[in-house]
Amino acid sequence: MAYTLIHFVLTILTVLVLILDILSIWEVIFKADGRSSLNKAFWVLLIFFFPYVGLFLYLIFSRRRDYNTLDSPCLP
To answer: For position 13, what pLDDT does the model report?
Structure first.
């Protein structure tokens, strides 16, 4: 029974990381208007080939607030 519980938890974590990877790649490609193409390609390849490490590095070092123009509030 313990093996089944461990397997279930690891499966849930893997699916969660997969969903976060897809959302991160979507954000890099479609929402980051100020990034260069080389910068976008770097982040997409890093997240794609190294899902856990790439996602962690993207969330920590990507400066998402500087490039995410669609979620910016409209201030007068």
So the answer is: 95
Distance, CA of 46 to CA of 42 (rounded, Å)? 6
Structural domain includes residue 32: yes
* Burial class of residue 47 (count of CB atoms within 10 Å of its CB; 0-12, 13-18, 19+): buried
Count other C-beta atoms under 10 Å from residue 23's C-beta: 11
- Other beta carbons within 10 angstroms of residue 66's beta carbon come to 10
Q: Is residue 72 part of a domain?
A: no
Instruction: Flag whether 61 is in a domain.
Output: yes
Residue whose token pair is 């790649």 = 25
pLDDT band with cut points at 50, 70 and 90 for residue 50: very high
